[in-house]
Design brief:
The protein has a single domain, classed as 3-Layer(aba) Sandwich (Rossmann fold), CATH 3.40.50. Helices cover about 45% and strands about 15% of the residues. The chain contains 9 helices and 9 strands. It has a 7-stranded parallel beta sheet, with helices on both faces. Strands 6-7 form a two-stranded antiparallel sheet. The longest helix is centred in the C-terminal third of the chain and has 18 residues. The model has no long low-confidence stretch (mean pLDDT about 90). InterPro entries: DNA_Partitioning_ATPase, MipZ, P-loop_NTPase.
Length: about 260
């Protein structure tokens, strides 16, 4: 069966679609068969990202490894038939969830073998994971963490394996070091209580916004004629390499 990766967080603007696109495309470029489903039926950022890629590849007559974009079905359960179709031909399936609580997102979390939760490195995003006192003490899990806990319980009852949960600290700034340390300390404390791992994600870079209209990722730049990468682009590629390594996906050897 395909290994299911869910990218979820009940807050917009945390980098879910950028993370989804780069993880899915990195796996495809390493030779794995990868499927993708965009569960944000309204905005469809991940879906449009992939559609932009297909259009650009066709227009420029390029051969870039790409994930397969699945299509949600109709009716009360649009997810199951889409997954069934992708599982027949994929090693990995990546589900990009909306930045809100929906039935589709809740169902996706119960299916996750690996869960990636991107968050901006601030206490505003941290509040989605846990409630804190004014003094900075973690009081207990918040709404999203409770939903993940419920998904874990449902998987246990069904005899499925555990969810490997990775919280990704995106947009780690070079400034405000004191606040960054406080967020990091709070995350480490919370990770031991509710069971997730913490990793550094993607820094804020203009390149991510520039790549979207063509559906490209950092790993495609040399294939489209970019002979010399900037220091920022090289650093961003290393961030992606570190992320793939942190995910510790089954039988994955990093080749970029």
């Amino acid at each position: 069966m395909a290994h299911i990766i869910v990218v979820g967080n009940e807050k917009g603007g945390s980098g879910k679609s950028t993370t989804s696109m780069h993880v899915a495309t990195a796996l495809a470029r390493m030779g794995y068969r990868v499927g993708g489903l965009d569960l944000d039926v309204r905005q469809r950022t991940f879906g449009r990202y992939l559609e932009n890629r297909f259009a650009y590849v066709k227009r420029e007559n390029l051969d870039l490894p790409s994930p397969i974009l699945g299509v949600l079905g109709d009716g009360n359960d649009p997810l199951t038939p889409a997954l069934t179709q992708l599982e027949a031909e994929c090693d990995f399936i990546l589900l990009d969830c909306p930045g809100s609580h929906t039935k589709l997102s809740q169902m996706a979390h119960t299916l996750a073998d690996t869960l990636i939760t991107p968050m901006n490195d601030s206490f505003i995003d941290f509040d989605l994971l846990a409630r804190m006192s004014p003094e900075g003490k973690v009081l207990g899990p918040s709404i999203y963490a409770e939903m993940v806990w419920a998904a874990r319980q449902m998987r246990a009852q069904a005899g499925a394996g555990p969810i490997d949960w990775l919280v990704l600290r995106n947009r780690l700034g070079t400034q405000a070091m004191h606040n960054k340390r406080k967020v990091g300390t709070a995350l480490e404390q919370l990770s031991k209580r509710i069971g997730f791992r913490v990793a550094a994600g993607f820094s804020e870079r203009v390149i991510f916004r520039e790549l979207f209209p063509r559906g490209l990722t950092l790993l495609d730049l040399r294939d489209i004629g970019t002979e010399q990468l900037s220091m920022s682009n090289i650093a961003a590629r290393q961030e992606l390499r570190d992320l793939i390594s942190e995910l510790n996906l089954p039988n994955v050897s990093i080749t970029f």
